[in-house]
Each structure stands twice: as structure tokens, then as C-alpha cells.
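Rotation project, supervised by the postdoc (A.L.). Task for the rotation student: set up a whole-complex structure prediction and record inputs and outputs verbatim in this book. Inputs entered:
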Amino acid sequence: MSIPSPPRAWREQKYRYRLVGVKCTRCGLTYYPPVVVCTKCKSTELTTIELPRKGVLLSYTIIHYPPVEFKEYAPYAVGLIKLEDGTEVIAQLTDIDFNELRPGIKVEAVFRCLKTQGEEGIIEYGMKFRRALEE
Amino acid sequence: MRRVAVIGVGFTKVGEHWNSSLRDLYAQAVLRAVSDADLELRDIQAMFIGNMSSGYLQAQEHLGSLLATHLGIQGIAAVKIEAACGSGGAAFHQAVLAVASGYYDFVIAGGIEKMTDVRTEYLTSALIMADDQEFVASTGVTFPGLNALIYRLYMEKYNVRQEDIAQFPVHEHFYAQFVEHAQYRYPITLEQVLESTIVADPIRLLECSPISDGAAAVVLCPLDIAMKRRKEGIVEVIGSALSTDAISLNEREDPTTFIATVKAAKRAYRMAKIEPRDVDVVEVHDAYSILGIINLEDLGFAEKGKGVRLVKEGEIARDGRIPTNLSGGLKARGHPVGATGIYQVAEIVKQLRGDFGKNQVDDAEIGLAQSIGGVGGTVIVNILKRIR
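Outputs recorded:
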């Protein structure tokens, strides 16, 4: 459990609240979270972009023994998700029946409360993913 | 660069040491290693201490000074080395550099983790500190949870069943029966593993390394000094490499291969001038059953997707082609996180000395120890060889 810290949550608002990553202007690779140098071509010219909010579940797990700050939420599912542009993210899965979980299902980002920092801190928000309606 | 030898090893039993503090456990290991090296504490010039979470679990940083003071050798160079669960392997790598460079002659690489001081949910928080706190830990994922994501990807990609992967801890518990310092000295069955409680789906409790207290230490010195001081049981460090990878799984092309293992192994094999087939005995970092399998592949002992065959066909048994984790591994010897990498090196040294009891590999000459930090964000590979 980290020490309650409002500035730490605030400074990442852009990336957490809007699913903002970066894209290398030279080779086009995208990153979430943002990096300052492109791993592939070593360019430092990266621009922030809003990532697509839809993607596919690649892998998932159900957490039965959570870290102390997530104790009240267990059990919950966490997934590795490939967004429509190929960027991959790890996120909690929400509003989903565990029996529906399987690699390949379509998911979409929703804005949710992630955790609270306890009595002295703030409530942290960000993106979770839920099952998307099939077209 | 000077050639480097390990001339002493020492460790405590791995387990739940309710009556021992971090400093007491560590001191026991160091005193045993120094005595095994036939040295005095005053001979030691530097100490690298592998530890992951003392700051969180004990609210204690500054282990270099603390532990040097507790051993009465303040004045030496001493510093904590942290690379999550790979801290022990990283501390050993630093000690090798310190001796090889010519800067110090007698150096201790130690490791300590005291995990039973706090409740499980706090430990769960401590262990996920190995990954990105702002963007990964904030999802509520746990360390076993990240390994579970890899587990499922692996089963799907290579069409391998959990029943086969879960053989790895069964293998380790069998050998741990004969290892005095192991935490769990009893056999388990595949049925028990598959019926044990689910920790992070699909990972079951008996596929997970346990909560352990333990400390280990080894003494290093230049090979020429070792040859003058010791008639037998001299072990040379012929390869040592550390490599990093993207810290989080979502930033990797293929999470079922640990690129840091592939890179560190390649460098260590090249430095040692050997091939994987020359290795006689191995300790891999199997924090979870799936990692035992992935590590065997990434170290070059099996093709990708075929690691389970080594287990099923007895190739990793004591008399097999590539005897692996005869200590019981992280699962059964135990995994006092920052100490584990040093336990592995100490166990390999004892194998090469012919001093590993019932699990001794016949005429073992070359041994390899692999230590992993996080889900492969850091990997250290050390290769040792018996000198006659």
C-alpha cells in the first residue's frame, strides 16, 4: 500500500482519465503508459494521442487474494487488452460475469473509481474495461 | 579482468522464523559463509546485500550500514542491491564485478528477506511493487495475477495443459524432502496441486512460491587467491550477466518468452564459452509453476512450447539430462525474495563441490543459476564451474 498522495494521482490525470498514450512520429509505434524515447527507433519525437477505447481481451485472471488497498473489491478480474490500434494495456474488467471471460471477447473502456487512498488521501479514478456490445 | 571464485557459502533454513529479526538471520548466514571460506570477518572488504522490501515490510532502509554494524564490520563498503525478486542474483553479479575489476579481494554477496513480519495482504502489496505503480498496480492486479496472464497466454499459444505445467511443483517437492534447509520437506501429488485453492485464476496455491524468511551469503575472491587458500572445492564464476526488459507485460511483443532471460543467458554462455548442453545442474526462478517451464525454454534447454516434455520425460530429474531445482526450487525450498538468488548460487556451489547429499548430481562440473526480478523485467544468469 502506497502512502496517500494527491499530487501523484493528479499528475497522471491526463493519461488515466482519457486513456492518453504517445505515438512515435517517426515509426508510428504507440505506447501506454507514455515513454520519452521510442524503444524501436530511438526517436525522442513522440506526440500524445488519445488511444481507441475498444479492444480485444488477450488474457485474463481473477484476483482472489488482493493487495491491501483492494481488499474490499475482491474477487475481481484483470485483463491484458489489445486496443484497436494495437496498443496493449492492463486493466481491471468490470460489469462482467466471470463465466463470460475468455480470450477474444470485445471490451471497451469505461471511467470508474479505481481505489481510495484511505482516510487521509483522495479517491483515484481511471479506466476499467467492460464487455462491449457485439455488433 | 580477474578470474573470480566462490570460496564460502552459508545460509539459514528457509521458513517462518518468528523469533529472528532481519539482522539476526542475515548475520547467521554471513558467519556461516565466512567460516566456510576459512576467513575472519575482518578480511571482508565489501558486501552487497540483495533485498527487495525492507523499506516497506520493516520500515528499514540503509541495510548496508545496518548489517555491517550488526556484524561489527562497519567501515567496509556495504550497500543494498534491489532488483525486486532478482535482488539476490543482482547482488551476486555486483560482487563478481567488484572482485573481477581488481577493486576488492574478499567480497560478500548476501541476501535477506523477512516476509513473515506482516500479514499476507501487505505482502501482496509489497510484491506488486515489482511492477509499474501508476499504470499496472493501480488496476488491482497482484504479482501472481500478472503471472496468471502469462500462464493463460502460454497455454493457448502452445496448446499446453495445466495438468502438465503443474507437474513442476510436484517435481520440486519430491526433491525438497532430502534438502535440510528447504521450507517444505514433503512430497505433493498432481491431484493436490490441481485441487488447491485458486490464488489468481488459473494459478493454484500449490503452484505458487510461499511466504518465506531466509538469509544466504557467499564469499567471493580472485581465483588465484582461492587456489592458494583451498586444496579442493574451488568453484569459479565463469559467466555472469544481467539483462532488463520492459517492466510490464503489455509493453512486450510476446509475454510468453522472457527476453531478459534469453539475453542474459546468451551473454553468460558466451562469457563462459559453453553451450546450454554443457550445463550439468540448474536452479531456475520458478516463482510460479509456469515460470519453471518458460525458464527451461528461455535458457535454451527446450524449444518454445516444449518445456513440459523435460518434466514429463524425467529430463530435469537428478539423473536426467538437465537436473533442475533439486533444492526444491522457489516452490519448496522457499522464496525469501531478495535472498533467493544467493541460495541458488550457494546450492550450485555445493553441487559442484559434491556436497549436495541425496540430491547430488554425479560428477557435476558446470552449474547455472537464474534469478528473475518482477515478471522478467530483470534477469540475472550466473554460471559456475568446478576447478580441479
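Student's summary: DSSP finds 15 helices and eleven strands in chain B.
Supervisor addendum: The domain at 130-210+238-387 of chain B is CATH 3.40.47.10 (Peroxisomal Thiolase; Chain A, domain 1).
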